[in-house]
C-alpha cells in the first residue's frame, strides 16, 4: 500500500476525488461502550430520559 492520499504534508485531512472510483459493496462493524451512574440507568429503564443538563450522567467511547 502506498502513502495515504487523505492527508496533506502537514498531516491535515483533505478531501479526495472519488468520482471515478468504481462502486463496491462494503461493510463496517463498530463497537462502543456506554457507562452511566445508577440514577440515570434507572430513569432510562423506567422510560424517562435524564433531566436536562445531566450530560454528566453518562460517558461513551468507541472501541
From TrEMBL:
InterPro entries given for it?
MoaC_sf (IPR036522), Mopterin_CF_biosynth-C_dom (IPR002820)
Ranges for domain Molybdopterin cofactor biosynthesis C (MoaC): 15-47
* Associated pathway: Cofactor biosynthesis; molybdopterin biosynthesis
Superkingdom classification of source:
Bacteria
- Whether Membrane counts among this entry's keywords is no
Protein keywords: Molybdenum cofactor biosynthesis
Pfam families (alphabetical): MoaC (PF01967)
The name this protein goes by in its record: Cyclic pyranopterin monophosphate synthase MoaC
